[in-house]
């Protein structure tokens, strides 16, 4: 039940509340995945499927534990030490994603916004990673797997990693076109996932 409550809080804070705050401050809907069949629109659909799978898995674990066996658990990974590591990653992800979204302020979007020009954010977590929000989501998915090691949480890692890497490359192309030399300089100094040296220093 605790895991189910955690994911309700996670989705509420990271997606619902953050989207509402952006809309309230800018009157812009931050959900910008289109409904087309191009790479961007398709990736949005995959993202939705991943969220549904996560909800189903944590719901089964919370409310129908007798069906847990149908999720094909990896029993040899079920131990308290890995669960503690998993919960640490889940909490770290929530903090990291929320603060990274705060760094982005009104520039935060779910997807690529081709209609409204946004500022290139290079401070806060973005001084160490070009994609701290996506990195935080990957960390959450690994944490979920360690808490609930089964075939479906492993599938979530595989699908989300593929989807995120696709989205990152789409956004890199867009940002290069949008911000040109500023983004080219930033990209040359900050790694896609993690840099040990702070940007600008």
**How confident is the prediction overall: mean pLDDT?**
92
Principal-axis shape equals globular
CATH topology call? Four Helix Bundle (Hemerythrin (Met), subunit A)
Biggest sheet, open or closed, and with what strands and sense?
A: none
Low-pLDDT regions: none
Tally of separate helices: 6
How many strand units?
0
Percent of residues in beta strands? Answer: under 5%
> Could you spell the SSE succession in H and E letters?
HHHHHH
Measured on Cα atoms, how large is the radius of gyration? 18 Å
Secondary-structure arrangement, i.e. CATH architecture = Up-down Bundle
Helix % is: 55-70%
Which class best fits the helix and strand makeup?
Answer: mainly alpha
Integer count of domains:
1
| Spatial gap, N to C terminus | 45 Å
Mind telling me the CATH class? Mainly Alpha
Descriptive report:
The chain has 201 residues and is mostly helical. It has one domain (2-189): Four Helix Bundle (Hemerythrin (Met), subunit A). The chain has helices at residues 2-26, 39-63, 80-104, 132-147, 151-179, 181-189. The longest helix has 29 residues, at 151-179. It is globular, with a radius of gyration of 18 Å. The N and C termini lie far apart (45 Å).
Short description:
This protein is mainly alpha-helical and 201 residues long. 64% of the residues lie in helices and 0% in strands.
Features of the shown structure:
mainly alpha; Four Helix Bundle (Hemerythrin (Met), subunit A); 6 helices
Draw up the topology in text.
Layout: H1 2-26, H2 39-63, H3 80-104, H4 132-147, H5 151-179, H6 181-189
Helix pairs in contact: 1-2, 1-3, 2-5, 3-4, 4-5, 5-6
